[in-house]
Amino acid sequence: MKKYLFFSWLSVIVAVTACSKPEPTRPVDPPAGSESHRLVKITSGEQNQQSYQYNDQGLLQSSNLHWRYNDSSTVSSTTAFTYDTEKRMSQILYDGKPYVKFLYEGKLLDKTEEYDHKGRLVVTHFYLFNGEGQLVELLDQIHDTETAAVQSFIKHRYEYEGQRNVQRVLSFRKNVNDPTFTPWQNVYYEHYDTKKNPHLSQVSYPFVVATATQVNNPGKMTVRDARDESLLSVETYAYTYDAQGYPLQKTQQLSTTHPLPAVTVSYQYQ
Question: This protein's superkingdom (predicted)?
Fold first, then answer.
């Protein structure tokens, strides 16, 4: 679970020079990860931080994390990243053990395989992109960790409006023997800014380049039960920016049954 939080809540990034589809036209310039704005550290308070180290080709080589979560647990870890001969992401190693493997069909990303700390296959992610390189469907194939047999599926549909920012992610699930998918959960994104996404030319969970879903920064994320649209959680985001439009700070406030303490993270660039 902590590895999932590491990649989703913090939007942990993986610098890449080749994405899963031909690079679409971007509405912001220059792209994040350029020499003038390469993300090197995310911090929150005096103790929480994540740092990034790059190789001579500008590809992210490793990341070090030390973070204390709301449940008082602390995670300290090192993540390493490897690439194929075409400088595409090939593997993510978490504390020295394989975590994610990337598989391509020709030049395009076809699927990723996610493993637990014992090296057992947990989830296979299958991707569908449109002609502009946007992620439009993600299929998660959940495996039994003892036998690797498929147990269930979760399907996510990504819907876009206006610029290249996802507005809705509609999720459905089914067990392996169920005839059809049933609605599960809907996520809504609102109030995008027109500034630079600090992870723009990088990869984050579910292990796709950020331009496949968001080129700007959302101001609000709402999660609802798809069966009756009942509210599950709301998270709001407020940003401060530098002169080039890159976020310097993000304050996020999560509310479920009651508001949780706000968290502010700071971005440092090279």
Answer: Bacteria
Tokens representing 9?
Answer: 């809540």
The answer to whether residues 78 and 84 touch, using CB atoms and an 8 Å cutoff, is no
Consecutive H or E run containing 149 = none
For 238, list phi and psi in degrees, rounded to 5. Answer: -130, 140
* CA–CA separation, 240 and 223 (whole Å): 25
Instruction: Tell me how far apart the alpha carbons of residues 268 and 258 are, in angstroms, rounded to a whole number.
Output: 31
pLDDT at 14 over 50: no
Q: What integer is the mean pLDDT of 93-122?
A: 94
Domain range 2-269, CATH class: mainly beta
Which residues, at least 6 apart from 53, have a Cβ–Cβ distance to it below 8 Å?
Answer: 60, 61, 62, 63, 64
Amino acid at 111: K
Taking a C-beta distance cutoff of 8 angstroms, is the pair 184, 206 a contact? no
Strand partners, 148: none
Q: Which of 86, 88, 66 is nearest to 20 (CA)?
A: 88
Q: Over the stretch 205-237, which tens digit does the pLDDT of each residue have?
A: 899 988 889 999 999 999 999 999 999 999 999
DSSP 8-state code for residue 65? E
Backbone φ, ψ for residue 261 (5° rounding): -60, 140
Q: Which residue has the higher pLDDT, 7 or 78?
A: 78
Short-list 11, 61, 34, CA closest to 208: 11
The sign of the CA dihedral 246, 250, 69, 210 is: negative
Looking at the predicted structure, is the pLDDT value of residue 33 above 70? no
pLDDT in tens, 139-173: 999 999 999 999 999 999 999 987 789 999 999 99
Residue 193 has pLDDT above 90, yes or no: yes
